[in-house]
Design a protein that fits this description.
176 residues; three-stranded antiparallel beta sheet; 8 strands; rod-shaped
Length: 176
């Protein structure tokens, strides 16, 4: 019989954090450090293994931003703790996958969570539409300026007159 055995470590919250070997003491009992158990953890994709003091339980890892919000799933964003870093990675990955609808928020205590981005108001929608129209107009004018320079270099007065008309149409159409 071997005098070493694999033991399973868990953090302060009970989450699996690794394994180690333990030895037998002189009485033949396993010298198990604190936050360690001989119970073999259960591992399953999409779940964390968590020791409840007697046995390992599976805890579902959120698979969407909506699940994060529903479960009030958070992490300490600046924690060096392995499980907190894993939780942070889950949050960031899910938000990156749907950043059009969700964002991360970190409060004054460095607690990171997921929030849904609210739908824009009618005023915000109108402002965005106006900005897009202005950008389109600006690009069209820039293109006309390039063509005007080309027409001027070529000395083509008919083309320049046509470009001036196009410019007036753009400007007058913007004022309506």
């Amino acid at each position: 019989m071997s005098n070493t055995h694999i033991a399973y470590m868990y953090d302060q919250a009970g989450y699996y954090s690794g394994s180690c070997y333990v030895n037998q003491d002189k009485q033949g009992k396993w010298a198990i450090p604190a936050d360690t158990t001989l119970e073999v953890p259960t591992f399953k994709g999409g779940f964390w293994s968590k020791f409840n003091g007697k046995k390992w339980e599976l805890e579902k890892i959120p698979a969407s931003c909506a699940e994060c919000i529903e479960q009030e799933f958070t992490c300490i964003s600046n924690s060096p703790d392995r499980h907190e870093q894993e939780k942070k990675a889950v949050i960031e990955s899910l938000v990156n996958a749907d950043s059009e609808h969700y964002k991360t928020v970190v409060n004054d205590s460095f607690v990171m969570s997921v929030e849904e981005i609210p739908e824009p108001t009618e005023e915000e929608k109108q402002q965005k539409e106006d900005e897009e129209k202005q950008q389109t107009l600006d690009r069209a004018i820039d293109e006309l300026i390039k063509e005007m320079a080309q027409a001027d270099l070529m000395g083509d007065e008919d083309w320049k007159a046509e470009l001036r008309d196009q410019y007036q149409t753009l400007i007058n159409g913007d004022e309506e």
